[in-house]
Design brief:
Chain lengths: 192, 82
C-alpha cells in the first residue's frame, strides 16, 4: 500500500524533474532535424559531385548521421517519458481512488500510461525520421509506417485491456447506484 | 556575472559558413587545389564536417540557453525575495 501523500510528492517531483528535460531534448531534436532537412540535405544535392570523397553519396550520409543523432536524442527522451507517464499515472490513481492505493493498482495504471506514452513518442519520432528515411531508402518509410501502425494497434489494445478493469469496476458501481436510486421512492411521493 | 552564450554564437557562425561558402566555390577551390583534391569533393567534406559540428553545437547551444533561462529565473526570484 502506498499513501496518497507519497504518490503526490513522487509524481510532482518527477514532473518537475523530467518535463523540462523532455522539452530541451525535443528542441535539440527539432534543431538537428531543421538544419539537416532544410540546409544540409538540399546543399548536398546541389553539389556537382555529391559524394563524400567518392566513397558514399552525400545525401544518404547526412541522412544516416541525422538518424543516428536523433536515435540518441529519442532514447534520452524515452527515459524521461517513462518518468512522466509514471507521474501522470500517479495523479490518475489519486483522482480515481479513495484512501490508500494498492501497489498493484498503481503499477497497472503506470503500465497503461507508459504504453500510451510509447505510442505517442513513436509517432513523434516517425514524423522526425520520415524525410530522412525517405532520403536513404524510399520504400523503407512505407514499411516502417505499416509496422508502426500494427505495433501501435497492439500496444493500444493492451493499454485498453489494462484500463478496462477499472472501467468495468466504475460501471458496476454506477449501475449499483442507479439501482439504489430506483429502489428508494422519491421524497415527493412520500409526502403525498 | 551573466554567462556569455558562446555555443549559440558558434552555431550561428557554422550555419552562416555552410550557407555562404558553397556560393563562393573559389574559396574552397584554392585550398583544394593546394591539397590536390577535387574542389567539389573538398566542398562535400567541408559540408559533412560542418554538419557534425552543427549537431554537436545544437545540443550544446540548447542546453546553454536552458541554463541561461534557469539562471535568469533564479536571479529574478532572488531579487523578489530581497
Amino acid at each position: 500500500m502506498v499513501t496518497r501523500e507519497e504518490i503526490y510528492t513522487e509524481s510532482r517531483r518527477e514532473i518537475v524533474d523530467s518535463l523540462p528535460k523532455i522539452i530541451v531534448e525535443i528542441v535539440i531534436a527539432f534543431l538537428i532535424w531543421l538544419f539537416a532537412v532544410y540546409i544540409f540535405i538540399p546543399l548536398a544535392g546541389s553539389l556537382g559531385d555529391p559524394t563524400f570523397l567518392g566513397l558514399i553519396g552525400l545525401q544518404p550520409l547526412i541522412s544516416g548521421i541525422v538518424i543516428i543523432a536523433l536515435i540518441i536524442v529519442f532514447l534520452a527522451i524515452l527515459k524521461e517519458i517513462i518518468d512522466v507517464t509514471n507521474a501522470v499515472a500517479g495523479y490518475a490513481t489519486l483522482a480515481f481512488s479513495k484512501g490508500e492505493v494498492s501497489d498493484d493498482k498503481l503499477e497497472r495504471y503506470q503500465t497503461g500510461f507508459r504504453l500510451i506514452g510509447y505510442v505517442l513518442l513513436a509517432v513523434v519520432a516517425y514524423l522526425f525520421f520520415l524525410p530522412l528515411i525517405a532520403g536513404v531508402l524510399g520504400v523503407l518509410a512505407g514499411v516502417v509506417l505499416v509496422l508502426l501502425v500494427i505495433w501501435a494497434i497492439i500496444v493500444l489494445f493492451q493499454a485498453g485491456r489494462i484500463f478496462s478493469v477499472e472501467i468495468e469496476q466504475k460501471a458496476v458501481e454506477f449501475s449499483k447506484r442507479v439501482e439504489k436510486l430506483k429502489e428508494t421512492p422519491p421524497a415527493e411521493e412520500k409526502k403525498t | 556575472m551573466r554567462p556569455f552564450p558562446i555555443f549559440t554564437v558558434l552555431l550561428l557562425l557554422v550555419i552562416t559558413l555552410v550557407v555562404f561558402v558553397p556560393h563562393f566555390p573559389h574559396l574552397v577551390g584554392a585550398v583544394a587545389g593546394g591539397a590536390g583534391v577535387d574542389p567539389d569533393r573538398a566542398l562535400a567534406a567541408f559540408i559533412v564536417v560542418m554538419f557534425i559540428a552543427a549537431i554537436i553545437l545544437s545540443v550544446l547551444a540548447v542546453r546553454e540557453i536552458y541554463g541561461l533561462v534557469c539562471w535568469q529565473v533564479s536571479g529574478e526570484r532572488g531579487l523578489k525575495r530581497t
